[in-house]
Design goal:
Layout (H helix, E strand, L loop, with lengths): L5 E5 L5 H10 L5 E5 L11 H16 L5 E4 L2 H14 L4 E2 L2 H11 L4 E6 L1 H6 L1 H9 L4 E6 L3 H6 L6 H16 L4 E5 L7 H8 L4 E3 L2 H14 L13 E4 L3 H12 L7 E2 L4
Parallel strand pairs: 1-2, 1-3, 2-9, 3-4, 5-6, 5-7, 7-8, 9-10
Bound molecules: D-glutamic acid.
Length: 266
């Protein structure tokens, strides 16, 4: 089990922000990453469709005998963890719980904001998870459907991006939140503009590093951390437009993606 890879998937390139943290925290591990670029975005789709995609993606990763799967997508984590855990016997790590826990730890006024896709906000997954950690925390959520295309287009610091971010955040700021969860794995790329629009008082929670910690803890508890003198070999797959995936993905990962391949099951 030890030397098997970790499987990670997202609807596209967003999950690479989680991979970046996993590389930092677990530099000896090998990963197999899958971006379902043929069917992105997931955030506007129904829970039934997202569940079906999630199971197909996990099935693909199982071909590589992965020892654990990270669902590096809030949209899938908020709708499909139950079905994935039912169908697959390896540990399945989502991104909601680590972000919710971190927000509860750092809020001072017990007012937390969550931004994400329509599907994530509609699921109320963050509200449920936050209530699990503390009954006193009030949660205000806002779907920000324009953020994913802005990020994919690479408009990370444009004036227009700032105006859009400000407009989406307005109702959350009116609720006097002091902590804001980036509830979509695309959003860390907009962190500086989101932070500027929210103001210095608001702490931004990006769950990627907490997810990497959780993966580390689970593997350690199973005695499944990789131990090999060989340099890890990472594999990247996309279900469509592989070159575009690799080019945009490098911005998310902050590193080169060489030899990305097409996953042919879609
Ligand atoms: N990266 C996905 C998430 O974390 C959002 C992108 C999509 O809508 O597919 O929710």
């Amino acid at each position: 089990m030890k030397n098997k890879p970790i499987g990670i998937f997202d609807s596209g390139v967003g999950g690479l922000t989680v991979v970046k943290q996993i590389f930092k925290r677990l530099p000896d591990e090998e990963i197999v990453y899958l971006g379902d670029t043929a069917r992105v975005p997931y955030g506007t789709k129904s829970p039934e469709t997202i569940k079906r995609f999630a199971v197909e993606n996990a099935d693909f990763l199982m071909r590589f005998k992965v020892k654990l799967i990270v669902v590096a997508c809030n949209t899938v984590s908020s709708t499909s963890l139950d079905i994935l855990r039912e169908k697959f016997s390896i540990p399945i790590v989502g991104v909601i719980k680590p972000g919710a826990e971190k927000a509860v730890q750092i809020t001072r006024n017990n007012k937390v904001g969550v931004i994400g896709t329509y599907a994530t906000v509609r699921s109320k997954a963050y509200e449920k998870e936050i209530k699990h950690f503390s009954k006193d925390v009030e949660v205000a959520s806002k779907a920000c459907p324009l953020f994913v295309p802005l990020v994919e287009e690479g408009w990370l610091k444009e004036e227009i991006t700032f105006s859009i971010v400000k407009k989406y955040l307005k109702p959350l700021m009116a609720k006097k939140i002091d902590t804001l969860i980036l509830g979509c794995t695309h959003y860390p790329l907009l962190k500086s503009v989101i932070s500027k629009a929210a103001g210095k008082e608001v702490k931004i929670v990006d769950s990627a590093s907490s997810v990497a910690d959780e993966v580390h803890n689970i593997l350690m508890s199973f005695g499944a951390l990789r131990k090999s003198a060989k340099t890890p070999r990472h594999r990247f797959f996309a279900t469509d437009a592989v070159e575009h995936f690799a080019r945009v993905g490098e911005k998310f990962l902050g590193a080169k993606i060489s030899k990305a391949k097409r996953a042919n099951y879609v």
